[in-house]
Amino acid sequence: MGAKAQTEPRQIQGFVVDTAGTRLKGVTIRLTSTRDTITVISSNAGYYRFKDIRGLDIRLSYSMLGHQIVNRTLSSKNLFSFIVMPNVVLRPQSSLIEGVYVLKTIPVVYAGDTVQYNMDAFTFRSNSLLEEALKQLPGIQVSRDGTVYAQGKPISSVQVDGRKFFGGDVLTATRNLPADFIKSIQILNYRNELSADKRFTTEEPEKILNIVLKEDRKRISFGQLTAGVGTRERYIGSAGINRFDDGQEFSLVGSINNTNTSLFSFGSPTGMGEREKSLFDVNDFVDPTDGLNNIRSLGFSFSDNLAENTQFNANYSFTRKKNFTEGNSILHSDYLRNRISNEENYDITNDDNFHRLRAELKHRFQNQDVLEIKPVFSYSRVYVWNNRKRQVNNNRITNRGTYQDSSYQRNPNLDIDMLYAKSFQKPGRKLLGSVSLNFNSQRKLEDVLDRYVSVDSTPIDPIHSLFEQRYFIQQRNGTDGVRASVSFVEPFSAYSTLEFLYNYELTDMTTQRIVEDKLKSEELGYFFYVDSLGVNYNYRFRNSRMGLNYLYTPHKTFRANIGFAVQPVKLSSFLPREDMQYTYENVNLVPTAGFKWRLNEETDWSVDYVGKNNQPNLLHIIPIRDNSNSQNIIVGNPELKAEFSNRISTTLRKFVTSRGQYFETNFAYNYVANKIVSDKTAISGSTIQETTFKNTDGYYDIKWYYLFNTPLFNENVQLDISGNTDYYNNLSYVNDQRNTTRQFIYSQSAQLRYSWSDYFESMFNANYLLNNASYTWPYTTKITGHSLLASAATKSYLGEHVTLGAEMSQRFNSGYASSFMNINPTIINAYLEFSFLHNKQALLRLQGFDLLDQNKNMGTYSEYIGNDVYEARNNRLGRYFMVTLNMRLQKYPKKR
Fold it and tell me: What does UniProt give as the signal peptide span (predicted)?
């Protein structure tokens, strides 16, 4: 490795300026290393560059008549193929003195798929957590809920010194690790090199954040204690203990609060995951969580080397989240000569309990073969109480009533992933085999009460009628799946490589459902079951894929691959009671192609195409007429086919390292054959709608985004600009008529961060969102919603111990169908912090959240699909004041 490091050529470049920031011409820069001695002169723009540097222990000397000499060194541990030096400042010197030795860390280093931030080059307040430090790094954004974005993409996992910290959980790392423990932050475009040959894949890599600890922080115990109380019965308490010992890691964290604060980001406590987040979501200083929450969480993590070549880590987390949400919604469904309107006022109580236990074992054998085993067990228990008061209108027919639904659900789930990578002496040859097993079961008990009074005003004398039904539903679902794959990679020339692959997937689902009519049971004196709603259903999805990929790499700057696969697909389902069998078979021809071209040392361009199958879910195919919600009857279609999507995308990335700039843009087109769409019918003379599903062709979407970040004037001013455009050509059927919904979404965001000095920093943000939707049936209808947001935040340090901060945002909404959507809230938050004790280990904080009490109106949603217009508003956390005390604990090992 040492010989290779010395022979690999490097390029070093930078600028020389004076104390006023003016770039200096004619500066002599001399570079020496173990193998190089080169001298260059800076250009008119103060620019210099060294090429083809091959040695180690690099030293640079900057000299100019009338100025002090500056010397810099580059450590052999942090040498990359492309290095940008920070601006070198030459100070005036009236008389000749001895040379001055200055050592400054390079702030940002770009090396292929890795961006490294050297933390010593940035200034952070003492005792800052990683989350606060990340907000100051160029190209990185942190949203209010803790989601971290790097170059516009969310960070999916966190490592410490190459090992997953707390199972890779992002929030646990960013809200527990102190910034001053960290030597550097690395943003990796990560693909597991053992799971598949990463050179062939056309899938986007995930973003991984790797934290490199300082040498004197690799053996340390640290933790924190937090307690706080506030108005409106707000409270918070949390504790964390962490131990690092040269690769061994142990962590224990827990919290209890009703301020919507969480230490974990494993997904929602139900285990179902949350809505996909995007950097382009329009966020301001609101609390983005609907309802009022009481959260309790506890977790631990352990990682160590069991033997010289065996790594093991395990983590467990428990979260209990009790949520109470109140809201109102309106749903308009347009038909040819009528509109069905459903207005609801509702309150929903959820009590979610979620456990997750995860382990990972990795062993490298003496022959360099690798074995990985990753079991994950989760268990959720959810209670839901749903009360709705609704009014449904259809011309002269009106229903007023209530809908109540209470349920209990438990869901154990086990996933096991196993991988074996065979090592060969021939470079580039690989044999990989993997097996994934999934065992999932669900038990659900549900009590549904549907009662309303219907008034038909069509005749002269209105007709009044009462509808009432009460069902008790018992349902068991089981889903078992297996996925297996084998891949063999063989290089057959200096530039060409072939991959032979085989994938197999099998999914078995079973559903048993019993529905009791409780009103009939009370009337008859015994259990009465509705046979038409009962289900005993088996479903199997099977597909295999045999393919061949060819990779051509004539040189390091270009890579192209083309592949072809045959994918037989079979869906089969069986109703034992009716002795009915449904079968669908098809063979998909799946081409894949892509190339990546490194246009120069700072620019790369890629184009990829990939095809993929998507199977229908249980709601789509279960063959019953479910009228447990009397106003919205669902009928499954067991004859549905699997969807097949075709996606082509192109991405251009450019680093302008001499200026600290980054630009990225992406364009993607996705076409789906056999798209599964809804088929709705309005039942004549009523307010009832019935929905089933069918396959159709014609769906496509087009997506484009860009992002750009750059310093302005100097490193203290950072500008981030991003924008995206999404266009959806969505399809549905209404009364057997094909309906096309075209939706255009555009957003533009700009953020300016300014560090005035070591004691004052500000942030300004502006967002614009356009949501335009139109549908063609029963008549052309358009809805155009606008949202404009302007916000600003400032933080000042009044001396060494006092911090004062404030933030404000103003939103302007217009064009939405419902009046409650067109609101213009103003959000103001403020806080005062006082640090004390030795090394500022204690922090007292007084904060006021939502001083104008307008956040409670911010939970608004809109959705336009088919002939439906849905808009809703939920309550959120309102104004409160809180006092919190935080204590940080650290213990270093005794010096030997």
Answer: none
DSSP per residue over 48-109, as a string? EEEEEE--SSEEEEEE-TTB--EEEEE-GGG--SEEEPPPEEEPB-SS--PPEE-----SEE
Measuring CA to CA, which residue among 501, 564, 510, 572 is closest to residue 542?
A: 572
For Cα atoms 389, 625, 441, give the angle at the middle one, nearest 5 degrees.
Answer: 90
**Helix/strand/coil (H, E, C) string of 829-875?**
EEEEEEEECHHHCEEEEEEEECCCCCHHHCEEEEEEECCEEEEEEEC
What amino acid occupies position 733?
A: Y
Coil vs helix vs strand at 6 = helix
Band the pLDDT of 112: cuts 50, 70, 90.
Answer: low
Give the pLDDT score at 478.
Answer: 92
Alpha-carbon span 728 to 699, nearest angstrom:
8
Average confidence (pLDDT) over 601-610: 88
Rounded distance between C-alpha atoms, residue 386 and residue 545, angstroms: 44
> Over the stretch 59-74, which tens digit does the pLDDT of each residue have?
888 888 778 888 888 7
Contacts of 852 (CB under 8 A, 6+ apart): 826, 827, 828, 879
Q: Which tokens hold the place of 846?
A: 């007084």
Q: 233-253, pLDDT tens digit by residue?
A: 999 998 888 888 877 888 898
Structure tokens at 365: 């054998």
Gap between the Cα atoms of 430 and 435, Å rounded: 17
Please give the C-alpha separations between residue 18 and each of 45, 59, 91, 379, 657, in angstroms, as whole numbers. Answer: 12, 21, 6, 62, 20
Higher local confidence (pLDDT), 349 or 878? 349
> Torsion angle of alpha carbons 199, 205, 207, 208, nearest 10°?
-50
Please count the other Cβ atoms lying within 10 Å of the Cβ belonging to residue 746: 16
Amino acid identity at 82: F
Q: Which of 437, 386, 441 is closest to 411 using CA atoms?
A: 441
Which DSSP letter does residue 199 get? T
Q: Please tell me whether the peptide bond between 778 and the residue prior to it is cis, using omega within 30 degrees of 0.
A: yes
CB 729 within 8 A of CB 700: yes
Q: What token pair was written down for 683?
A: 């039942």
Alpha-carbon distance of 654 to 603, in angstroms, equals 4
The residue-averaged pLDDT of 80-109 equals: 63
> Rounded to 5 degrees, what are φ and ψ at 884?
-130, 150
- Which range has the worst mean pLDDT, 4-8, 23-27, 521-525, 629-633? 4-8
Q: Is 22 exposed, middle or buried (0-12, 13-18, 19+ CB in 10 A)?
A: exposed
For residue 815, give the DSSP letter: S
Alpha helices in 622-731 (DSSP H): none
Q: Which region holds residue 115: left if phi is over 0, alpha if psi is between -120 and 50, else beta?
A: beta
- Cβ neighbors of 639 (< 8 A, separation 6 or more) are 582, 584
In 758-820, the DSSP E strands lie at 760-775, 781-798, 802-814
Q: Which residues contact 328 (CB under 8 A, 6 or more apart)?
A: 343, 344, 345, 346, 820, 872, 873
What per-residue confidence (pLDDT) applies to 106? Answer: 61
**Rounded CA gap, 732 and 274, in Å?**
25
Q: What whole-number distance in Å separates Cα of residue 38 and Cα of residue 48?
A: 12
- Distance of alpha carbon 383 from alpha carbon 349, whole angstroms: 8
* Phi, psi dihedrals of residue 282, rounded to the nearest 5°: -80, 105
Report the DSSP pairing between strands 661-673 and 675-682: unpaired
Give me the chain's average pLDDT, please: 83
Closest CA to 123 of 135, 113, 114, 133: 133
